[in-house]
Amino acid sequence: MITLFNTIFYQPLFNLLVWFYNIIPGHDVGVAIVLLTILIKLILYPFSLQAIRAQKSLAELQPKIEELKVKYKDKKEEMSKAMMDLYKEHKVNPLSSCLPILIQLPFLIAVYQVFIHGLSSQGLENLYSFVANPGHINAVSFGILDLSKPNIILAILAGAAQFWQAKMMPRQKPPQKVTGSKDEGMAAMMNKQMLYFMPAITVFIGATLPGGLTFYWFLTTLLTVFQQHFYLKKDKKADDKRQIAP
User: Fold this and answer.
1) Using one digit for the tens of pLDDT, what is the confidence trace for 55-81?
2) Long-range contacts of range 97-104, CB-CB < 8 Å, 24 or more positions apart?
3) Which residue, 245, 151, 138, is CA-closest to 206?
4) Which residue, 21, 6, 37, is CA-closest to 136?
5) Considering the chain, what percentage of its residues have pLDDT values greater than 90?
6) H or E segment to which residue 30 belongs
7) Residue 44 and residue 21: Cα distance in Å, rounded?
8) Distance CA 116, CA 201 (A)
9) Domain extents for the chain?
10) CA–CA dist 33, 135 (Å, integer)
11) What b/e string do you get for 12-33 counting C-beta neighbours within 10 Å, with b at 16 or more?
């Protein structure tokens, strides 16, 4: 299993990073990470777009979901069926927003291994025969950042980008609460966790990881923010046109 993972994920990403490092003037590993991140983002673009669509659709359905929770608060089976019917009616898969995260996880693990093991002299033995061995990779990027060591600034930037991404996603206010509902405020609590808790966890964990990995995560989130911005802007224009049309 480990050998298969290394063959499919680790070695290709590692060799791409070193190849970018070799061809970039000045051999800056930070620039190589930027190029590698853009390439991975392009590969995962369809899945990322699917997640953005699913998140927006779920946000728009939230008031109706809360209404069903109130209506069937003591009838769990009926509530489950009504929820599935609602998702089917609006063609929404509640698991779609999680899929890109699961798909990106192997890439994240592989990039982690690259910065933990791959950039050493021994790690360079995993290069393909057609990728030149640079002998040594300078982990200092842009003349100031040592991407082989944890960097709190990059961790804060990664957390801020994740907060920006969560803040950008439209949120619908739940319907008026009905006394006695056990699920009251659940959506609001989940929104707060996504908005504040996850970025805080990103900063906490990112501050302990190699700066190169945190830099990769920051760039990935930033590119997702731009993708999300343009999709929501385009989608809003389409909604406005549909409302204007007779």
Assistant:
1) 777 777 878 887 887 888 777 888 888
2) 97/51, 97/54, 97/55, 97/58, 98/51, 99/47, 99/50, 99/51, 100/44, 100/47, 100/48, 100/50, 100/51, 101/51, 103/44, 103/47, 104/44, 104/47, 104/220
3) 151
4) 21
5) 22
6) helix 29-43
7) 22
8) 21
9) 2-244
10) 18
11) ebbbbbbbbbeeeeeebbbbbb
178 against 234, higher pLDDT: 234
Under 8 Å between Cβ of 56 and 170: yes
Close Cβ partners of 71 (under 8 Å, ≥ 6 residues apart): 79, 82
167 in Cβ contact with 175 (< 8 Å): no
Closest CA to 21 of 137, 129, 119, 135: 137
Backbone angles phi, psi at 140, to 5 degrees: -80, 120
Which has more confidence, 5 or 178?
Answer: 5
Long-range CB contacts for residues 30-37, cutoff 8 Å, separation at least 24:
30/141, 30/142, 30/145, 30/147, 30/215, 31/141, 33/141, 33/147, 33/212, 33/215, 33/216, 33/219, 34/219, 36/111, 36/216, 37/216, 37/219, 37/220, 37/223
Q: Which residues contact 6 (CB under 8 A, 6 or more apart)?
A: 126
Residues near 3 by Cβ (< 8 Å), separated by ≥ 6? none
φ/ψ (deg, to 5) at 146: -90, 100
> In angstroms, rounded to a whole number, what is the distance separating the alpha carbons of residues 127 and 124?
6
CA 145 and chain centroid, separation: 23
Tokens of 21: 């490092």
Helix (H/G/I), strand (E/B), else coil: 55: helix
Both tokens of 30, joined, read 């930070």
Put simply, whether the predicted model's pTM sits higher than 0.90 gets the answer no
